[in-house]
Amino acid sequence: MHEGGGADQSDTSDSAEQPDAGEGAENRDARDGAERRHATDGAQRRHAADGTERRHATDGVETRHATDTAEKLDSHDDTGASRPNTPATGEPAPSSTDISVPGGTLRVGEWHPDAEGIPWLLVHGITASHLAWAWVARETTARLIAPDLRGRGRSTATPAPATGNRPGDAPLARHADDLVAVLDAKNIDRAVVVGHSMGAFIALVLADRHPDRVDRVVLVDGGLPLDLPAGMHPRDAVRHVLGPTAARLDMRFATTGAYRDFWRAHPAFTGREDPLLDAYFAYDLQGTPGHLRPATTFATVEADSIDQNTGASIERARERMPRPTALLAAERGLRGETPPLYPDLDTLRSAHPALTTTRRVPHVDHYSIVMSAPGARAVVHAVG
User: Fold this and answer.
1) This model's pTM is above 0.90
2) Are 280 and 131 within 8 A, CB to CB?
C-alpha cells in the first residue's frame, strides 16, 4: 500500500510485508483490542469521552456520543427492547454527527476527534455502514471520519438514481460530493481517503472530482474493474457478486438475534464471535420486532452497482488517478472463497500504472480485510 509520503513501493511478494496479518487471528478476543494502538508521533492519544451529549450550535450540525443511552437504534433485541447505538464492547465508541447534504442528512461517525495530523476519511462498502471501520479505529489513534453513505445506516439522504440528468447526479459522483460536504462540516481541508469495496470506487471518484481535498487514496479490495462473466447485464451483476449479501435486502427478520444468525451462516462469518460484529449487524437493522429489515434497499444497491461497473465518472477517475493511489487486495472473496475479487495483481499493475502500490493481504476475505484485527492492522500499516 501507499506508505506515508507517496513513494512508489510496489510489492510483488503479495504477503510478506503485512505485519501480523498472517496470524489467522480473525477471532481475536476484543478484550485486548484497546491496547493495540498505532503510535502517532510517539504518543498514545486517547479521546476522553465523558458520555455527555455534545451539540454544535453552528451549521446545523448535531453531534452526540454513541455511548449516550439516549441514542437508540431503530432495531430491537429479542424482547423488543430498543438497543443503544453501541454495546459495551470495551472499545472507544465513535461520536455521531448528522450533516446536511442535498436531499437529507448523513450520519457520520468519528473516532479520536482530538488527534493531531491529517485525518482519515473512511468510505464503507455497498451495503455497510460506518461501523465497518470499528476494527480500524481499534488499531490507530488517527482522527477517523466515517459517514453512513446516503441510503445506508442512519443517513436520511435520498439515494441517487442509476442515471442522472447531469454527471454530478449519478450515484458515485453524488457520494463523492457528499464526502466533500462532510469534510467541510468538519473543517477538514484534506484527508487520506480509505475506501473499502464500493467505497474504493467512490474514493477514486472523489479524488478525481476534488483532488485538492485528497492527500492520497487507499483502495481496499475495490475500486478497480471486477472480472464479471462476459455479456452479464449490469443489473444481474449485483446478485452475482454479492450473493446472500444482496439476497438479505429483500428479507425481514423477527429479531436482531435472527439477523445475527443469518450472518453466522454466511461463509465469511462462520465461527466468528465478536462484540464489534454484534454491534455492526444490529446497527444495520430498521423497523420493529417481527418486521426488522436492513437499512439499505436493493434498488439503492442496484443503482450504485450499475454506476460502479459502467459509469463514466469511475472510468475517468481510474484513467487519471490524480492523487497517489494504492491497493490492498484480500486473499479470499466475498464468501471466503478463492479466487478473490482481484486474483492477478500483476495484471492490475500493468493495466493501471498510476497505482503506487499493490499488496495482497493474507488470511483475510473481502469483509475481514477491514472487519478483523489482522485486516485492520494491514489497513493502518498501508496508510502509514
Assistant:
1) no
2) yes
